């Protein structure tokens, strides 16, 4: 292939006396004419290649057919009304509806995000009602950016009643009574692009309804209390303001302020960043805290709000053999969400700690939700699995009666597929679980097309979920495999730590071992394995295709963190240091990161797998420069590769959240088409 010519500069950076070339450093400037021209040239060659795939249009049609079904969100009561989201099928954004009761068959459109922009690239972020449901604050993301604006609506008149708030990032909306709310943001970067400049100090503000944003009161944070992430919540009795303050994605401090006491000061409940904590429920002046302090698999403690320091925390629900993934409440009851080998188990307890019942789930999968108002008599929850499209269940708190409230109906025959969980041995002897999904009755012939998906980081657990990408791959005759790599949270904090910093190579070794297991068990061969991952998973794919190019046929790194020496120089990237480490911290860490950083380990004369990198020009979480530099390196050092080394750059899109349905379908069609084509196979396409 003739790739666009990419200027190779003599730019270098120095760490601890070692000079490191960075020839494509200029691609970090997302505002330059040169970068924009490079993006255009790369997209032309990529689209020309994809357009030659003979079954691409049929794959897109099938994916669109799979997507074209009604998708609902669970209803929630606010004031005297119930609200829920619904997508008719191919709408770019889901619409918010309102009705007087959940028994009603009819509902009215309340808020339609499809009207936010003509091309569907503006999306609804958070949706937060005031205490009595009379006001709504909602955020909008434009072009996929993490920067948001917030509008406030009078619910009855559906008119905007306050200033539009701008430049808000990584924030919830925490209402205080019906008077105003707390939110978080950063100052806009003074140097560099808004989409790539460093965002350093988070700040919490209070906005009073009717006031101008310039008059909003700074409550916490900024240079006087420097923290990268600060999030505010207000207890449902409007008494306590609780702040979670963190320097990175792991470990946080907790602060509390009594809003009923005039001139009250914040009390620091946790004064270090060693563990994760969150206040999940209150009962009068008692706080219930979900924590992994002294409990790597999680526990629930309680403490008096008047003296909430860690030394006073009392055990409420102790750590168990299962991982306590989350805690929610509704109807003045508590719901404990556990994981057993990455599959959900839900326990309903009362607020004294007595077990009411284990909630029966449809099977092996993921359950979420179980939250509501204190006076609610029922809660709703979602359940789904690889071969079980998402269903919403209605759970009656008093007696546990459960029924399906809404179930997805789509053109996918779930009963044709089976889900298995198998365990394989990684390089250092660690046993790692993996979900394997395929059509019933397949013959293991050593040559089945496999899509191997992974993440392995930030304490995030990959549980069985229904996804159109997976459904489409299975529908076309493929096998889907999802290992639970170290770095995730499937077995608690110890499992997470085992895949961080100087142990990050464990994650790559686990993924490589997963592929080798699939080969040894006669599922497939290296010529039929595609690896896929996004964000931190994009790093996983990038590192593995560099370390074991012989093991995979196709590599799909999406919005990946690929320059491990400079990732902390952009937006909020420094917040990832607890997981990755930082090249600036020590010679040892610099050498370790340089040893696996995908951008810095591309070599000439290597036959890499067919590569389709995907990113977006408005990704201000993992800036697209990571993907730009990786693509440029692959193409520069291997211009004569027999396998395509391409990059697909979406415009007016970000890291993924809020991406319009049409854009999602296009990207997915390109990824799946590229994969089948480079495996030399023709997919089974049911129309």
List keywords for this structure.
alpha+beta, 687 residues, single chain, Rossmann fold, 10 helices, 5-stranded antiparallel beta sheet
Please report the total strand number as a whole number: 40
**Full CATH superfamily name of the domain at 12-64 and 412-678:** Alpha/Beta hydrolase fold, catalytic domain
- Straight-line distance between termini: 33 Å
Structural class determined from secondary elements: alpha+beta
Number of helices: 10
Looking at how many chains there are and whether they match, the oligomeric state comes to single chain
What is the CATH architecture annotation of the domain at 12-64 and 412-678?
A: 3-Layer(aba) Sandwich
CATH topology of the domain at 12-64 and 412-678: Rossmann fold
Report the C-alpha radius of gyration, rounded: 25 Å
Strand neighbour order, sheet with most strands? 33-34-36-35-37-38-39-40
How helical, in percent, are the residues?
10-25%
Q: How would you characterize the overall build of this protein?
A:
The strands form nine sheets. Strands 33-34-36-35-37-38-39-40 form an eight-stranded mixed β-sheet, with helices on both faces. Strands 3, 4, 5, 6 and 7 form a five-stranded antiparallel β-sheet that branches. It has ten helices and 40 strands. The radius of gyration is 25 Å and the shape is globular. With 687 residues, the chain is α+β, with helices and mostly antiparallel strands. The longest helix has 19 residues, at 33-51.
């Amino acid at each position: 292939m003739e790739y666009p010519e990419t200027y190779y500069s003599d730019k270098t950076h120095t760490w601890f006396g070692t000079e490191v070339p960075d020839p494509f450093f200029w691609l970090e400037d997302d505002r330059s004419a040169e970068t924009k021209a490079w993006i255009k040239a790369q997209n032309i060659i990529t689209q020309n290649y994809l357009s030659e795939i003979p079954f691409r249009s049929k794959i897109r049609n099938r994916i669109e057919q799979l997507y074209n079904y009604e998708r609902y969100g669970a209803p929630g009561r606010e004031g005297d009304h119930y609200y829920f989201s619904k997508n008719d099928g191919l709408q770019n954004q889901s619409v918010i509806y309102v009705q007087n009761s959940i028994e009603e068959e009819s509902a009215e459109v309340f808020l339609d995000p499809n009207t936010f922009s003509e091309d569907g690239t503006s999306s609804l972020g958070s949706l937060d009602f005031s205490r009595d449901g009379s006001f709504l604050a909602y955020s909008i993301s434009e072009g996929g950016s993490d920067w948001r604006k917030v509008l406030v609506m009078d619910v009855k008149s559906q008119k905007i009643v306050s200033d539009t708030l701008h430049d808000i990032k990584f924030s919830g909306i925490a209402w205080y009574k019906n008077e105003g709310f707390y939110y978080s943001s950063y100052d806009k970067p003074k140097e560099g692009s808004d989409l790539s400049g460093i965002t350093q100090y988070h700040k919490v503000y209070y906005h009073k309804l009717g006031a101008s944003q310039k008059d909003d009161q700074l409550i916490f944070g900024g240079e006087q209390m420097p923290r990268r992430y600060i999030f505010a919540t207000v207890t449902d009795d409007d008494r306590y303001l609780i702040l979670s303050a963190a320097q990175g994605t792991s470990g946080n401090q907790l602060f509390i302020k009594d809003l009923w006491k005039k001139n009250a000061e914040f009390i620091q409940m946790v004064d270090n960043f060693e563990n994760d904590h969150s206040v999940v429920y209150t009962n009068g002046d008692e706080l219930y805290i979900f924590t992994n302090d002294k409990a790597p698999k999680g526990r629930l403690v309680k403490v008096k709000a008047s003296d909430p320091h860690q030394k006073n925390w009392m055990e409420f629900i102790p750590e168990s053999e299962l991982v306590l993934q989350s805690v929610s409440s509704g109807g003045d009851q508590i719901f404990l969400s556990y994981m057993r080998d990455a599959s959900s188990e839900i326990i309903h307890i009362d607020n004294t700690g007595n077990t009411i019942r284990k909630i029966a789930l449809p099977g092996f999968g993921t359950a979420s939700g179980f939250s509501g108002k204190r006076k609610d008599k029922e809660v709703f929850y979602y359940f789904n699995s690889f071969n079980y499209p998402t269903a919403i269940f209605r759970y009656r708190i008093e007696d546990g009666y459960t029924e399906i409230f809404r179930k997805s109906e789509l053109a996918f025959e779930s009963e044709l597929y089976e889900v298995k969980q198998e365990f394989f041995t990684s390089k250092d002897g660690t046993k790692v679980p993996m979900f394997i999904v395929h059509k019933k009755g397949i013959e293991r012939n050593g040559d089945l097309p496999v899509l191997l998906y992974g993440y392995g980081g930030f304490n995030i657990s990959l549980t069985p979920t229904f996804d159109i990408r997976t459904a489409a791959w299975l529908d076309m005759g493929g096998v889907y495999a999802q290992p639970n790599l170290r770095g995730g949270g499937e077995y608690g904090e110890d499992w997470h730590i085992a895949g961080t910093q100087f142990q990050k190579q464990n994650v790559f070794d686990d993924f490589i071992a997963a592929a080798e297991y699939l080969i040894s068990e006669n599922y497939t061969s290296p010529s039929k394995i595609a690896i896929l991952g996004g964000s931190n998973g994009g790093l996983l794919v990038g590192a593995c295709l560099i370390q074991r190019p012989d093991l995979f046929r196709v590599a799909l790194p999406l919005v990946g963190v690929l320059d491990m020496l400079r990732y902390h120089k952009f937006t909020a990237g420094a917040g990832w240091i607890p997981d990755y480490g930082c090249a600036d911290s020590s010679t040892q860490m610099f050498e370790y990161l340089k040893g696996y950083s995908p951008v810095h380990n591309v070599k000439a004369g290597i036959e890499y797998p067919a590569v389709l990198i995907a990113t977006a020009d408005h990704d201000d979480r993992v800036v697209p420069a990571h993907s730009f530099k990786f693509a440029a390196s692959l193409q520069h050092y291997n211009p004569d590769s027999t396998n395509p080394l391409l990059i697909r750059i979406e415009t007016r899109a970000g890291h993924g959240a809020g991406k319009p349905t049409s854009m999602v379908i296009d990207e997915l069609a390109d990824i799946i088409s590229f994969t089948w084509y480079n495996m030399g196979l023709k997919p089974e396409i049911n129309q």
